[in-house]
């Protein structure tokens, strides 16, 4: 039952009857009752309230004496009023269909139906409501839909390129660091085989032919290796996975006489490892 009290202080203890809660639940949607002013005031109140609750600890730590007990009492009163505000908000929201609410309503209507049955009277309304709330009270909770996780993509099969540590070779024109025309195609081939072959690191070594002095060929071979490394980074390969060096004419692919120009020796080799 609802207590109707005239005193504003005693009205704090008034309760909302179950029938009123169920009546609110009959509405299909909530009504908008808070305007912009109320929402702004609610936000300001939340900010100020949080600050007030924290001030007691600051005051107690820094500059409060024995009277700090009074500040805790005042904070307790503020918490009590905050709790009353939350309870008021709770009564404004229609029921969500809890088993406790259905059980309470079933108890009322089934009791009424039992009273009528004792006098050999079948009250249609009470019997209907008794059956309705008993069904709602005992119905199983809705099953949680199970979302099947997508299967991971099948690993790509190993290719013939995985059998050789030499992943790619780039050939250069004489006295040039310009990348050859098929550079992008070659780098795409390396990128596509990284996962199937398990490649995680690459060693990039530049070479020259024997047509110049070592003091010139050594830096030239390094610049060629740097050019290949830069293009591989542009393709998405992390720089930390690359080791770059230049060997000049020290490791020719084809043995030639000193001073001879050989296109096979003007190269950059990329070896891969796990």
Task: Please tell me about this protein's structure.
The chain has 274 residues and is α+β, with helices and mostly antiparallel strands. The protein is 47% helix and 9% strand. It contains eight helices and four strands; from the N terminus they run αααααβααβαββ. It has a four-stranded mixed beta sheet with strand order 1-4-2-3. α8 links the parallel β2 and β3 (242-246). α2 (36-62) runs antiparallel to α3 (68-92) and α4 (99-118) packs antiparallel against α5. The protein is elongated, with a radius of gyration of 41 Å. It starts with 17 loop residues before the first helix and ends with a strand.
Query: What is the count of helical runs?
Result: 8
- Rg calculated over all Cα atoms: 41 Å
Name the overall outline. Answer: elongated
Q: Separation of termini?
A: 77 Å
Order of helices and strands: HHHHHEHHEHEE
The percent of residues in helical segments reads: 40-55%
Strand tally: 4
Widest sheet: strand ordering? 1-4-2-3
- Structural category: alpha+beta
Beta-strand content estimate = 5-15%
Unreliable spans: 1-6
Could you tell me the mean pLDDT?
Answer: 79
